[in-house]
Amino acid sequence: MNAFPDDFTWGAATAAYQIEGAVDEDGRGESIWDRFCATPGKVRAGDTGAVACDFYHRYPEDIALMRELGLGAFRFSIAWPRVLPDGRGRVNEAGLDFYDRLVDDLLAAGIQPFPTLYHWDLPQSLENEGGWTVRSTAEAFVEYVEPVVARLGDRVRHWTTHNEPWVVAWLGYSWGIHAPGRTSEQEAVDAAHHVLLSHGWAAEVIRREVPNAKVGIVLNLEHVDPASDSEADRAAAREMDGRANRWFLDPIFRAEYPDDVPFSPPVRDGDLEAIAARIDFLGVNNYFRFVVRDGLELVETPGAQRTDMGWEIHPESLTKLLVRLGRDYAPPSIYITENGAAFADVRAHDGGVHDLERVDFLASHIDAVGAAREQGAPIDGYFVWSFLDNFEWAMGYSKRFGIVYVDYPTLERIPKDSFHWYRERITSLQPA
Ligand code: FCB
């Protein structure tokens, strides 16, 4: 039985800072991740994105691999500091040229480009002025989006504004474990609001510039289970769902923040209407579920299987999440824009990488997506995180998520067993 139609999009995802390297080339400006990596103690083993997978130079080789894989779409992000090195003002044409070539080469290989406009690499000059905690950064985002869509809009149809506003705001501004490394919950609330506002404003710009555009935003969303049936645990699960999921879904789909979450965002007249700009698709990134007890405490399921990130493997929760999104928010379309797993991959004596745990993970999660489709969730695509092993933010190069292994000393690419499995899976589902 095949839960997936012929025109279902099978993709793989990446992000600029995690793969490109070439941080000082062709006029790119400094980003908050360059600065964060240069700050001792912030990133494991002092790793940085300075070289990463060297995708900036090796993308033709990578596109050849994507073609071999039979990929339908490639999700990547555009680095704001390549396009506007100072965050606003002067446009660096050489930065745009790179994405122009990338888009042309993807299309020539029959692969749909799925760019994300913001995957966390804010120009450092904007951070110096307050970063996402200030409203002027949302205005600068629109200034950045305009030349990008003007350059690529004739060829790119699917546009994503932001990747995971919750992570941008909370890990960057409240927990301090991502760039810019700040530690104030109110700043996280402010940052989240300005990210959402900039999404709504940018969605209007994209629609104006690219008449047939499909515009979306990517959220990290997690199904939340209470640790027990007790009233207190169920209330905790509802509160966690409010903070992590509804805080973002409600303004985007209903032009309101949930009234049961105790945050005070800096809302001005017209903001909520702007945030609720019509979107064509919701991107869902999902890696795990939450199990929560009274006091908002996360509970570990004894004996559960986990990935190398320590994340519980629980595909049924992905089905529940997707069915619920379709029912409660009725998005016109959903793409799973990230799903995947890190494991401690090694090259075997035969030269291959036999990542059978990742094959199991992908198989069970793709089945979970199929089950959600059968229950009515309007899902049109699935992207594996990630195409390549890459720079996993504060964890540096210690976590491997790719279906292609990267040997960092030589930058050689070695397709893992999961790559071959994914190729079989997606080609058997595509029309001959
Ligand atoms: C997501 C990010 C992505 C990657 C995966 C593992 O939160 O969007 O860049 O790091 O986690």
What does this structure look like?
It is built from 14 helices and 13 strands. Strands 1-2-3-4-5-7-10-11 form an 8-stranded parallel β-barrel, surrounded by 5 helices. A 3-stranded mixed beta sheet has the order 6-8-9, with helices on one face. The chain has 432 residues and is of the alpha/beta class. It is globular. The mean pLDDT is 97. Bound molecules: beta-D-fucopyranose (FCB). The site of beta-D-fucopyranose has 12 residues, from loops.
List the helices and strands and how they pair.
Elements: E1 9-13, H1 16-19, H2 32-37, H3 55-69, E2 73-77, H4 80-83, H5 93-108, E3 112-118, H6 124-128, H7 135-152, E4 158-163, H8 165-174, H9 185-209, E5 214-220, E6 224-226, H10 231-254, H11 271-275, E7 281-285, E8 290-293, E9 297-298, H12 315-329, E10 334-338, H13 356-374, E11 379-385, E12 404-407, E13 412-415, H14 417-429
Parallel strand pairs: 1-2, 1-11, 2-3, 3-4, 4-5, 5-7, 6-8, 7-10, 10-11
Antiparallel strand pairs: 8-9, 12-13
Helix pairs in contact: 3-5, 7-9, 8-9, 12-13, 13-14
Bound molecules: beta-D-fucopyranose.
Work out the strand percent.
5-15%
Number of E strands: 13
Write out the distinct hetero groups bound to the structure.
Answer: beta-D-fucopyranose
Number of helices: 14
Helix content: 40-55%
Q: Can you tell me the residue ranges where pLDDT is under 50 for at least 5 consecutive residues?
A: none
Radius of gyration: 20 Å
**What is the distance, rounded to the nearest whole angstrom, between the alpha carbons of the first and last residues?**
17 Å
> How would you state the average pLDDT, rounded?
97
Silhouette: globular
Strand-pairing-aware structural class = alpha/beta
Most strands sheet: 8 strands, parallel, barrel
* Largest sheet strand order: 1-2-3-4-5-7-10-11
Write down the secondary-structure element order. EHHHEHHEHHEHHEEHHEEEHEHEEEH
